[in-house]
Design brief:
Elements lengths: L1 H43 L5 H27 L9 H17 L6 H29 L5 H27 L8 H17 L6 H16 L10 H10 L4 H21 L1 H7 L5 H5 L3 H21 L1 H21 L3 H19 L2 H8 L6 H30 L4 H25 L8
Helix pairs in contact: 1-2, 1-4, 1-5, 1-6, 2-4, 2-16, 3-4, 3-6, 4-16, 5-12, 9-15, 9-16, 9-17, 12-13, 12-14, 13-14, 13-17, 15-16
Subcellular location: Cell membrane
Membrane topology: Multi-pass membrane protein
Main location: membrane
């Protein structure tokens, strides 16, 4: 009976922290999605060049590549009575909400860019910190389910951004920015009130590792794991599993972002659709992704995360190939839905594999940041590489190029799987 009660308590704790992390991610992604919807229009009031607008809008991804690993590492090395994550969130989430609220009130281009960059800096700073709460509290075996819930919450923010735009933007364009800001303030209030990550399993393990490290070091040496140390271990470790996972994230991220960002011109150029019709091609696939997220976690628990990731990419590539072979609007929509279902198999489990491969509880935040480096880097490079291939071969081969990129990601994941098998590691635990 006591063991049953303990199991029930652990399940309740897992659900509780999953809800809080999902709330934090929902809040921050609500502002990001509305930012992506509205800020280009604000910039158009000052800038005529689409290239310049695109450059400014892309700065947040570039900042994230550099800032997120640093802030993840900084929080990893923080020790307070509140833990190592909540102190940062308590300060930075209200700052992000305030900066977001200021954006529509900037009347000059210079000040608008300053506020946009400050907003991107603050938001990128706490993104890996909020997401790292989940592996801090939840044991490795349950992380895929929890991450599926978080990904669903993130995906639902597109609906929030659309509703705010529909209901408020035309009549109250400045007030509309207050809604996502208010969501973020409510989220941080709940987190600060209800979560103390000083009690998390990973934080307690990190403290134990600190004590063990301090016992073997001279008294004047500060116990700290630097990014340089982590990267050196990652690159020069004889087991390449962690590095290969990050490269796979980079490659599949490139395929995914090319898939999402280039479908509108594909619909116009190849399928003969209007701009509006082409822009709606990916809507059903977004719904398919949400529906597939939790089953992808269950499949990972049953068959192993790496196998689920490889199979998911294979389904993604199959959908792309079907769309490349039969180029009609109906078949394209079906193919995109199939591809999105497959993508869920990879996207739900990839960061979990990286967390579970981390050598220590002291580096979980840094590994969250490194995952973002791979994903955002792929999002930056992938559409450009696929776009270059399209320039050479034509739009009709777009989906085939994406499928080829996905095939490279499959090879990388299979490579990791074989390395784990060769080392005698139980794959389902990863």
């Amino acid at each position: 009976m006591p063991s049953a009660l303990r199991a029930e308590s652990r399940t309740a704790d897992t659900r509780r922290i999953t809800f809080y992390v999902a709330l934090a991610v929902f809040a921050q992604e609500s502002t990001w999605n509305f930012y992506d919807n509205r800020v280009p229009e604000l910039l158009r009031d000052h800038v005529a060049s689409a290239a310049v607008i695109g450059l400014i809008m892309g700065m947040d991804n570039l900042l994230g590549i550099f800032i997120q690993p640093y802030m993840g590492n900084r929080s990893d090395n923080t020790r307070t009575s509140w833990g190592r994550r909540i102190p940062y969130l308590a300060v930075m989430m209200p700052m992000g909400a305030a900066l977001f609220l200021l954006i529509p009130h900037m009347s000059s281009l210079g000040w608008l860019i300053v506020v946009i960059l400050l907003y991107a800096l603050v938001m990128n700073s706490f993104k890996p910190i909020s997401e790292s709460l989940m592996p801090d509290f939840i044991e490795p075996a349950g992380r895929s389910r929890a991450n599926a819930v978080v990904k669903i919450a993130s995906a639902l923010t597109t609906i929030v951004a659309a509703l705010v735009s529909l209901l408020l933007v035309d009549d109250y364009p400045k007030l509309a920015f207050a809604v996502p800001s208010a969501i973020m303030l409510v989220a941080v209030a709940v987190l600060v009130w209800r979560v103390r990550d000083s009690r998390s399993r990973a934080y307690q393990a990190a403290l134990a590792e600190d004590r063990a490290s301090a016992a073997t070091e001279s008294p004047d040496v500060k116990v700290k794991v630097t990014i340089r140390t982590i990267l050196r271990d990652l690159v020069f470790d004889r087991d390449r599993s962690r590095l290969l996972v990050i490269i796979a994230v980079f490659v599949f991220g490139g395929a995914w972002f090319a898939f999402r960002s280039l479908m509108t011109p594909y619909g116009v150029q190849v399928l003969g659709l209007s701009d509006g019709e082409a822009g709606g091609l990916t809507l059903p696939s977004g719904i398919a992704y949400i529906l597939a997220a939790f089953p992808a976690a269950l499949l990972a628990e049953r068959f192993g995360r790496l196998r689920t990731m490889a199979a998911g990419i294979a389904v993604f590539a199959t959908g792309a190939i079907i769309g490349a072979v039969v180029q009609t609007p109906t078949v394209t929509i079906v193919a995109l839905c199939l591809a999105a279902v497959g993508a869920a198999g990879f996207m739900i489990n990839a960061v979990v594999v990286l967390w579970n491969l981390a050598p220590s509880s002291r580096v979980l935040g840094t590994y969250t940041g490194l995952y973002t480096v791979g994903w955002a880097g792929g999002g930056f490079v992938g559409p450009a590489v696929v776009g270059l291939a399209v320039d050479v071969t034509g739009w009709h081969l777009l989906l085939l190029h994406i499928a080829l990129l996905a095939a490279v990601a499959i090879a990388l994941v299979v490579w990791v799987y074989r390395l784990r098998r060769a080392s005698g590691t139980r794959e389902s635990a990863e």
